[in-house]
Specification:
- There is one protein chain.
- This protein is mostly beta strands.
- The protein has one helix spanning 110-113; strands spanning 3-7, 12-16, 22-26, 39-44, 49-54, 59-64, 69-74, 82-87, 93-97, 103-107, 125-128, 137-142, 147-152, 157-162, 174-177.
- The longest helix is centred in the middle third of the chain and has 4 residues, at 110-113.
- It is globular.
Length: 194
């Protein structure tokens, strides 16, 4: 019954109850762990954790639902322009980065990340999008089946990849869409939810 809304200008996540009242806030402006410098996206993970992609802190900060700061997971050095965040059913974290258009940054779940303090996790890697080109990524969503969907505003295409590591089906990972105003296309894709 609660909604978690990122306010990038105020550098906080507002938590609303079902009547639309602000119950509490997560994070505050600053450079220290648990503070937000340049937050871009928010996701709720399967274990009831709040993940905030923070470009200014070059990572993903993890909070409990009540706002307690738990951990900072750093992005790899080649992730220079993160744009969108998604969390899969296992808790694995996916980040779309404009500088890495053919793949998603794949970070570990929180348990694995706790072993890597102040460093990118050893199993941070890439989830390739076969044929994909995220030139202007706007959203990443992890589904209950392990599929990861990424939305690209520039092309108007939804790309999907199997986050479980299974052998992909088909010649590329294009799921749906294209830029335009007709059926099966998006005029200005801004987000996706599944």
């Amino acid at each position: 019954g609660r909604s978690y809304v990122l306010d990038p200008d105020k550098k906080t996540v507002l938590v609303f109850d079902d009547a639309g009242r602000v119950v509490h806030r997560i994070g505050a402006e600053g450079d220290a762990a648990g503070h937000l410098k340049e937050p871009l996206d928010v996701a709720i993970g399967p274990a009831g954790l709040v993940y905030v992609l923070d470009k200014g802190r070059k990572g993903v900060q993890v909070f409990s639902l009540d706002g307690t700061f738990l951990h900072d997971i750093l992005l790899p050095a080649d992730a220079k322009d993160p744009r969108a965040l998604g969390v899969g059913p296992s808790g694995r974290i996916y980040v779309a980065d404009k500088e890495l258009p053919g793949s998603l940054v794949q970070l570990p779940d929180l348990t694995a990340a706790l072993s890597a303090v102040d460093a990118p996790s050893p199993d941070a890697g890439r989830l390739a999008l076969r044929g994909g080109n995220l030139r202007e990524p706007v959203a990443v969503v992890g589904t209950s089946t392990g599929t990861v969907v990424a939305a690209d505003r520039e092309s108007g295409v939804l790309w999907s990849a199997d986050g479980t590591g299974a052998t992909p089906v088909g010649s590329d990972d294009r799921l749906y869409g294209g830029k335009g105003s007709g059926r099966g296309s998006f005029r200005r894709l801004v987000d996706v939810a599944l």
